[in-house]
Specification:
The complex is a heterodimer of chains A (242) and B (219). Chain A has 9 helices and 10 strands. In chain A, the strands form 2 sheets. Chain A has a 6-stranded mixed beta sheet, with helices on both faces. Chain B starts with a helix and ends with a helix. In chain B, helix 2 packs across helix 5 and helix 4 packs across helix 5. The chains are: A alpha/beta (242), B mainly alpha (219). Chains A and B meet through helix 2, strand 6 and helix 3 of A and helix 6 and helix 7 of B. The complex binds adenosine-5'-triphosphate and magnesium ion (MG). The site of magnesium ion has 3 residues of chain A, from helix 1. The site of adenosine-5'-triphosphate has 11 residues of chain A, from strand 2 and helix 1. Chain A: This is Amino acid ABC transporter ATP-binding protein. Chain A: GO terms for molecular function: ATP binding. Chain A: Keywords: Amino-acid transport, ATP-binding, Cell membrane, Membrane, Nucleotide-binding, Transport. Chain A: Belongs to the ABC transporter superfamily.
């Protein structure tokens, strides 16, 4: 589904990504972790071309991102993305947040888009808030709306960039529950997260990044079980301390 | 010295016509200034070099020359170059729209820049094209953030419309000066229009202030 091939990226002289190669197969859940500044966000944003890269290629559902002829907006409309800071559109109601791209990008009718939005809103348990604006919702609620907004586009894969790290602790689970449910339904997912409980529960593979490199790329069982690289061990021991 | 009130009353229809002209010039220049200004702002923020440079040159040019001069030049030069007699009215409308666009551009540019990178990315991630992202995500928020500044600029613009009297257009000041010369009542006329300009501008700026507070509450 997603195939990342030898991707390198620089900011001026500073290399953020070094020769990253991995893939996410259909129906697979891949968790990406690693210390702050290791390039996790950058890597996941290259997958839907929010971040350009200078070397290598990424192929999403057979479409090459490096190919200048690729229609990037169209490609992005098929890839759902959930951000650390939710990024709902603050000037639109929840209903419109869910409907607008369906209407303007996919060309669905207003009724169709709203019906689909309402269904997804119900699924994340927030039907009562349809008429509100994002600012009136808690962080956890906003993030659930953001997931519903991405799902409304019927994405072939979902990308998550630390979806719970900006949330108060008591709201983390309501978001993770939605994500776990998605994973169980067979959604293809690439998630940057430090929620190792989530990784244990649903991940097929875990990628560990450090200093712009993919240092570990292995099955969940191997990652949490058998001996692994020193840096990954150190990282894991740090985040599992609590 | 006598203050001739009845002469003011007698000229009220003429002044009213002048005020209507000033108001319509203000509204026209605001509308087109904002439309052109928005396009200019997008050009100034564009990564396409020539577009960016052209828009910057335009904005810097008009922000560096006095409006009065532009009014004059446009009035005199365009007929000279094109051979078409544009006339004071049309010339004033066009001049104001292209001149004010430079100022509105800078306000709108600040508005666009106030929108976080995350919002832009979120719009892109939904599959919006550049134009759609501007239209549905960025500009609505950008305008909301700068409404008070846009209105303040409109008030300044309203006062600046008085400059068109130099090319003989009959705006509020033009009308007053014509009456002043005809009936020889300069004091009465210039005091009257001063009061009118002051009242309108003052009331509007108070409203803007209220709006500013109201917006701050919403956010
Ligand atoms: N626009 C930019 N210009 C220069 N350097 C940047 C830019 N954006 C990110 N970086 C750098 O690139 C590196 C990787 O950033 P990235 O956001 O991908 O890290 P991350 O692994 O997601 O970290 P975090 O856990 O803090 O989110 C960091 O060192 C960061 O400082
Ligand atoms: Mg990050």
């Amino acid at each position: 589904m997603i195939s990342i091939k030898n991707v390198s990226k620089w900011y001026g002289n500073f290399q953020v990504l070094t020769d990253c190669t991995t893939e996410v197969k259909k129906g697979e859940v891949v968790v990406v972790c690693g210390p702050s500044g290791s390039g996790k966000s950058t890597l996941i944003k290259t997958v839907n071309a929010l971040e350009p890269f200078q070397k290598g290629d990424i192929v999403v559902d057979g479409i090459s991102i490096a190919d200048p002829k690729t229609n990037l907006p169209k490609l992005r409309s098929r890839v759902g993305m959930v951000f650390q800071h939710f990024e709902l559109f603050p000037h639109l109601t929840i209903t419109d947040n869910l409907a607008i791209a369906q209407q303007k990008v996919l060309g669905r009718s207003r009724d169709e888009a709203r019906a689909k939005g309402a269904k997804l809103l119900e699924r994340v348990g927030l039907s009562a808030h349809a008429a509100k604006f994002p600012g009136q919702l808690s962080g956890g609620q906003q993030q659930r709306v953001a997931i519903a907004r991405a799902l409304a586009m019927d994405p072939i894969v979902m990308l998550f960039d630390e979806p719970t790290s900006a949330l108060d602790p008591e709201m983390v689970n309501e978001v993770l529950d939605v994500m776990v449910q998605l994973a169980h339904e067979g959604m293809t997912m690439m998630c940057v997260t430090h929620e190792m409980g989530f990784a244990r529960k649903v991940a097929n593979r875990v990628i560990f990044m450090d200093k712009g490199k993919i240092e570990e790329d292995c099955s969940k069982e191997d990652f949490f079980g058998s001996p692994r690289g020193e840096r990954a061990q150190l990282f894991l021991s740090k985040i599992l301390q609590h | 010295m006598d203050f001739n009130f009845s002469a003011i009353v007698d000229s009220k229809d003429f002044l009213w016509e002048g005020l209507k002209y000033s108001a319509s010039l203000t509204l026209f220049a605001t509308f087109f200034g904002i439309v052109f200004g928005t396009l200019l702002a997008m050009a100034r923020l564009s990564s396409i070099k020539p577009l960016n440079l052209a828009a910057s040159a335009y904005v810097n040019l008009f922000r560096s020359v006095p409006l009065l001069l532009v009014i004059f030049w446009f009035y005199i030069l365009v007929p000279l170059i094109s051979g078409v007699q544009v006339g004071a009215d049309k010339s004033a409308y066009i001049t104001f729209a292209i001149f004010e666009a430079a100022y509105f551009c800078e306000i709108i540019r600040a508005g666009i820049q106030s929108i976080s990178r995350g919002q832009v990315s979120a719009g892109q991630a939904m599959g919006f094209t550049y134009a759609q992202n501007m239209r549905y995500v960025i500009l609505p928020q950008a305008f909301r953030n700068v409404v008070p500044l846009l209105l303040t600029q409109t008030i300044i613009l309203f006062q600046d419309t008085s400059l068109v009297y130099v090319v003989g257009a009959t705006d509020l000041l033009g009308a007053a000066s014509k009456v002043a010369n005809r009936d020889y009542i300069p004091v009465e006329m210039y005091v009257t229009v001063a009061v009118i300009y002051f009242t309108i501008s003052f009331v509007l700026s108070r409203l803007v202030k209220r709006l500013h507070t109201a917006i701050a509450v919403i956010r």
